[in-house]
Design brief:
FAD/NAD(P)-binding domain, about 30% strand, eight-stranded mixed beta sheet, about 350 residues, 2 domains, globular, alpha/beta, 11 helices, binds flavin-adenine dinucleotide
Length: about 350
Amino acid sequence: MPMNVIIVGGGVAGCYVGQLLRKKGFTPLVLEEHSEIGRPVQCSGLIGRETVDSAKVPFPRHVILRRIDGATFYLGENHFTIERDNAAYVVDRGLLDKHFSQGLCINCGEKVISLENGTQITVTTTKDQYTCDRLLGCDGPFSVVRKEAGFSLNPSFYPAAQYIVRLAPEDDFVHLHVHPPFFFWLIPETEETMRVGYIGPQPVSHLNRFMERKEIRGKILERQAGLIPLGYGEIVRKRIALIGDSACQVKPLTGGGIYYSMKASEMAAQCLEDLRDYEKAWKKNFGTEIKICLRIRKIYETMSRKNLTRVFNVFRENTSIIETVADFERHSSIIKEFATNPIMFRLVGSAVRELLR
Ligand SMILES: Cc1cc2nc3c(=O)[nH]c(=O)nc-3n(C[C@H](O)[C@H](O)[C@H](O)COP(=O)(O)OP(=O)(O)OC[C@H]3O[C@@H](n4cnc5c(N)ncnc54)[C@H](O)[C@@H]3O)c2cc1C
């Protein structure tokens, strides 16, 4: 008898892992609480080129809205630009999830409310009850699977807000305004619209003040809000695995989770028989990166404005190093490079080195 698999959540993690399992001959059932896949959108859809190039399910053209050729970083009026042709893409997140969901067996409008882990796993929803041999919790930051199955992973949550604004982008660059604990962003979407957002406490009032300050007067066409879960820990309990935001598979320095969700999905689909191998593979490939970036985040969040300015200036004066070593999907590469750089070492080296150990 083939294994019976239930996936809770039809976001990017749930639909992508579902698609990979389907290719392997399984018929997973996806349970999604919303009435439609891909709605509501709570994402800026900025992904590195590697996400698209390495995907096991190809991205169709209509999902990619725009090509990004670099980023300008700001600290107050101080700024610098990193250029790299075709470094990233802006995708339509709703269409991406829909694309990954094609051909899957999905019950929309059905929320999972509890689990029982006996000889089989019993899943109770708002409409029915199911049993399965493997359960994949792809149910986002507030994961019911994580809570009900008693995972020890305990995320820190950062609220986020984003507006889609009618405003013609001036270039194909992302504009990031440093503002701990994260940053404000302006991401070109179409020829006429931009995505403007912020992650941090009271994100809506911060975002409104930012729009005032920067005199961003375009009409707000859509308002989105969501949560970024950060942390590191247990992602497998016997026959139950967490994938995506439920597992805090999110880059700690930017909050980006699409790439990690997809890489984790690929590993989980390979290790369905013994899910402990999925946890091992995930931690082997991404554990050190996440732990380093969580430590850097701590430094960033507690840094004085004076030190933040000094670090920012070191980056500004060394853009060529950043252009050479920066990796959209692995942020620790750049931090490691700068931590061993004599100028940076003089400024914050000992603290950073201590944390990188
Ligand atoms: C404002 C914002 C901007 C972002 N921008 C980017 C970006 O530019 N690039 C990037 O890489 N990442 C970005 N992220 C992060 C990215 O959106 C997430 O990492 C990604 O969506 C994780 O996918 P997921 O499938 O794990 O979770 P989700 O996309 O949250 O999907 C979870 C699904 O599970 C469903 N669900 C939840 N509970 C239940 C239940 N009990 N029963 C049934 N269904 C349930 C939900 O309805 C949802 O459809 C952003 C996040 C926010 C908040």
